[in-house]
From TrEMBL, chain B:
SUPFAM superfamilies: Periplasmic binding protein-like II (SSF53850). InterPro entries: SBP. This is Sugar ABC transporter substrate-binding protein. Pfam families: SBP_bac_1. Keywords: Signal, Transport. Belongs to the bacterial solute-binding protein 1 family. Residues 1-20 form the signal peptide. Gene3D superfamilies: Periplasmic binding protein-like II (3.40.190.10).
Amino acid sequence: MTRDRIARTSLYLVLVAGLLVVVGPFLWMLLSSFKTEAEIRSVPPTWWPSTWSPANYRDLFDRLDFPQYFANSAIVAVLVTAGNLLFCSLLGYALAKLDFPGRKALFLVVLGMLMVPGMVTFVPQFVLVSNMGLANSYAGLVLPFLAGPFGVFLMRQFLLAIPDDLIEAARVDGAGEWRIFWRVVLPLCKPALATLGILTFLSSWNNFLWPLVVATTDDKYTLPVALALYAIGQNRIYYGLLLAGAVVVVLPVLIVFLALQRHFMRGIATTGLK
Amino acid sequence: MRKKWLAVATCAALAASVTAGCGRDDSGGGDTAEAVEEGKATGEITVWAMGTEGEKLSEFAKAFTTENPDAKVTVTAVPWDSAQQKISSAIAAKATPDVSMIGTTMQGEFAKTGALDPTPTDLFRKDSFFPGAWDTTVVDDTSYGIPWYVETRGLFYRTDLAEKAGFPDGPKTWDELTAFAQAMKDKAGAKWGINLQPGKTGSWQTILPFGWSNGAAIEADGKWTFDTPQMTEALTYYQSFFKDKLSPDDLPQGALEPAFAKGEIASFISGPWHVGILNEQGAKGKFAVAPLPAKQSSTSFIGGSNLAVFKDAKNRDAAWKFLAWLSKPDVQVKWYQAVSDLPAVQSAWDDPALASDPNLKVFGTALESAKAPPSFPTWTQLAATFDVEAEKVCVGGADPAAALKAVQSQAESIGTGS
C-alpha cells in the first residue's frame, strides 16, 4: 500500500516537472503578452505582469489588417489539409492494398521524395509556380502542398494493418472500388487521418517562407508573415507585439489539436510514427 | 539553421542559373546606364520595402503622386527577417517588382546576379550622397541603385556616471576608452564599464570600425586582407575589454537596455535607433552619444538601405523618377520626420530638424568618413565566418592573430566573387 503510494507520488512529481518544462514557455508567452515592452525585457524576467495592459493586443489589431491575414491563413490551411487527407489516403490505399504493375517502383519514388529536403526544391518550385502565372494567388499558395510524400507514407503504413479479408468481403458483396474505399477503408482510418490532419494543418498554418515568397502584395500574406513584418525590425524586435501575435496565432492550432486529440494519440500509437 | 540552408541553396541555384546562361542575358559588371526620358512619371510603380519603411512608404508617396498625377505607387511591405530570400527567389523567377529596398550588405550579391539596373548618371549626382553610402551601391565600378537612408555607430554612455568617472565628455582616444571603462567600474560604481558585442551575428559591424580607425583595410586591389598587423592590433585591443573584465561576454538578448538604464552597464556601441529604445526604457536625459574613440582616425561603420531598380522592371523610367524624388533633400528631411531614418543625402543634414539635435550631430559627423565593407558578392558569407572567429577571440580567449589568419584563409578560398 505505502510502496504503491510512494511510486504514485514520484510518478506525479516526474509528470509535473515534465509539464512545467513543456507548458512553462507557453505560459510565459501568454502572461508576457500583457506586459509592457520594458517589463518583458527586464532581467531577471518576471512571471506575473506588474500591470496588466492590453496595449500589445490593441497594437496588433490596429496595425495589422488582422481579418484579412487570418482569413488567408485559414483558407490556405484548410484547403491544404483537405487535399492531403484526400490525395494521401487515395495513393496510400493504392500502394497498400491494390495490386498493379509498378507499385513497388511508385512506392520507392514516394520514399525517395521523403529524402529530398524542401530547401532544395524551394527555388525551382517557385520558378515553376511563377511561370504558370500563379504567383500572388491562393492557387500558388495551396497547389504545391496538396499532397506530400510523408502523408502517403503514413497512410500506406496504417492501411497495411487493415485485413485484406475485409476488402475481399466487400468485393464479394459487389461493392465497387470507389465504394470500398469510401465506405469500408476510410472509416477505419480515422486515427491516421486525424494524425495527418493535425500535422498538415500545423505545418501549413506555421509555414512562413513559401507564402512570403509567393505573395507579392501584402493582401495575400498569411499570419506568420504579417507578424514577422510588424514585430521584427531591422535593428530591434518588438517583443510585446510578437508575443501577443504568437498567442493569437497559436489559438486555432490549439483548438484543432484539442478537438482531434483522442484520435491523434491513437494514430501515433498505432502507426508508430510522428 | 533551416533558413541558412535555404539561403545557401538559393544562392547556389542563382549562381547555377547565371553561369549556365539561362538566367540572365548578361552577368552584371561593366553595364552602361541608359538615360531616363524627360517629363513626369506615369503608370504604376511597384515597390518592395522592408519593415517600418514598407509600412509607411505608401502613405508618404502620396506627395509624389500629387506631383505626378498619372503615376501610382504600390508598396508591398516585406519582413526584414527574410527579405534576402524573397528577393533572390524573385530574381530567379524573373518575378521582381520595379523597385526594391536593398540592405547595403546584400547589394553585392544581388548586383552580381545581373538583375539590377545601373544607376542613370543623368538623374543622380554621386557627391550629393555620403561617400561611404554611395560606395555600397557600386559593384565592379558600376553603381546599381542609390542610398536611401543611412545609419552609423557611436558610443552611448551614461552622462551622470561619466561625470563621476572623470570623463564628462566621453573618451576621445583608444587609451582613454580603456581608462574610461575602468573608471566607470571603479569610480562610478557600474558593474561593467562598457558592453561590446562578443562575436556572434553582426559583431563585425562593431569590430571592423576599430580596424579602420587603426588604418587597416579588409580589401586591397580586389583582394581580401583580413590579417594585417593593423587589424590584429585592433582585434587584440577589442579583446582586452573582455580579458580585463570591463565588458560582459554573455549578456542575453534584450538585457542591455534595462541594465544601461539602471546604470549597471555604463556604455555601449550602437546605432541611432538606440536613442528611441533608451528613452522608452527610462534612460531619457541620462545619456549622450560620443564619436567612436580614435586611434589614427575615428572611422565608423555606415549601414542603412539602398533603393534599386530591376532590369525586368515594367515601368523603369517612372521608377527612377520616383527614386530621384525620394533623394531630394527636402523629401529626405520629411522622411526622417516620418520614420526617423537618417538622410543619405548630405545637404538634408543642414535642415534645423536634424542640425539642432546634439546626438544626431555626432552621427552626422561620423557619417562623413564612415565606411562599409566592400560590396563583393561573397561578403555576407565571409561576415558569418568573421563573427564566428571573433566569438572565439572574445569569449574563448583565442589568439587574435590566429583568428584573423583563419578568416583570411577562408576569404582566400571563397574569393571576392567578382
